[in-house]
């Protein structure tokens, strides 16, 4: 007689999986990709943060000039060191001149971050100073900001948007210089401020006859 043998259901399949050698190969490949990719990613992020630095300062310079023109008032931008990274915070203030009380560093009523200027035509709804922190920018041991001439910290604008040349020691250029470690990936750059109040990017390392050169 024939004997029927039962078959397992469902049918057994060969057990799959990684051997130790295969696992070590995969781990090795992953570690290699990380070793190659992480430095490149870090360099890319650092380069982008450095590029954002010039835009950060350009925004402040443009805002100061724009507020002077739009409000028919005088404005200023003041730079101060950021305690966290050595970059420069900036603050834009507005002042409305009145007879006998001009707007200059030693007189006039300037706006603050807490309140508009006392004689702002819009009263309590007037312009409050804009303060921007540079804490998101690279540390100054990566990219160091320098104001020129040495000792200058501010720029004053007339209601026409021109630089107020009556104010001494005004900033004429803001230079961003990378450390030697990053000099190969981050270029030296600068922002030059013309007497017309217009900020523009320039390259302090090229020949004076080059169109990219900074003004003397």
UniProtKB/TrEMBL annotation:
<dbReference type="Pfam" id="PF07963">
    <property type="entry name" value="N_methyl"/>
</dbReference>
<keyword id="KW-1003">Cell membrane</keyword>
<keyword id="KW-0472">Membrane</keyword>
<dbReference type="InterPro" id="IPR012902">
    <property type="entry name" value="N_methyl_site"/>
</dbReference>
<keyword id="KW-0997">Cell inner membrane</keyword>
<keyword id="KW-1133">Transmembrane helix</keyword>
<keyword id="KW-0488">Methylation</keyword>
<feature type="domain" description="General secretion pathway GspH">
    <location>
        <begin position="60"/>
        <end position="182"/>
    </location>
</feature>
<dbReference type="Pfam" id="PF12019">
    <property type="entry name" value="GspH"/>
</dbReference>
<dbReference type="GO" id="GO:0015628">
    <property type="term" value="P:protein secretion by the type II secretion system"/>
</dbReference>
<dbReference type="InterPro" id="IPR045584">
    <property type="entry name" value="Pilin-like"/>
</dbReference>
<dbReference type="GO" id="GO:0015627">
    <property type="term" value="C:type II protein secretion system complex"/>
</dbReference>
<comment type="similarity">
    <text>Belongs to the GSP H family.</text>
</comment>
<dbReference type="GO" id="GO:0005886">
    <property type="term" value="C:plasma membrane"/>
</dbReference>
<keyword id="KW-0812">Transmembrane</keyword>
<protein>
    <recommendedName>
        <fullName>Type II secretion system protein H</fullName>
    </recommendedName>
</protein>
<feature type="transmembrane region" description="Helical">
    <location>
        <begin position="20"/>
        <end position="39"/>
    </location>
</feature>
<dbReference type="InterPro" id="IPR022346">
    <property type="entry name" value="T2SS_GspH"/>
</dbReference>
């Amino acid at each position: 007689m024939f004997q029927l043998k039962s078959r397992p259901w469902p049918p057994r399949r060969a057990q799959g999986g990684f051997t130790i050698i295969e696992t070590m190969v995969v781990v090795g490949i992953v570690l290699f990709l990380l070793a190659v990719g992480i430095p490149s990613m870090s360099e890319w992020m650092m380069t982008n943060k450095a590029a954002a630095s010039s835009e950060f300062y350009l925004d402040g310079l443009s805002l100061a000039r724009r507020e002077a023109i739009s409000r028919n008032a005088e404005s200023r931008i003041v730079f101060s060191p950021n305690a966290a990274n050595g970059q420069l915070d900036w603050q834009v203030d507005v002042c409305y001149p009145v007879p006998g009380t001009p707007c200059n560093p030693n007189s006039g009523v300037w706006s603050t971050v807490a309140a508009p200027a006392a004689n702002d035509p819009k009263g309590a709804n007037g312009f409050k100073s804009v303060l921007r922190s540079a804490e998101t920018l690279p540390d100054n041991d990566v990219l160091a900001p320098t104001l020129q001439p040495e000792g200058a910290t501010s720029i004053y604008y007339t209601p026409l948007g021109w630089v107020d040349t009556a104010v001494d020691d005004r900033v004429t250029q803001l230079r961003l210089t990378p450390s030697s470690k990053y000099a190969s990936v981050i270029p030296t750059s600068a922002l030059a401020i013309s007497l017309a109040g217009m900020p523009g990017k320039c390259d302090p390392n090229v020949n004076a006859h080059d169109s990219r050169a900074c003004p003397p």
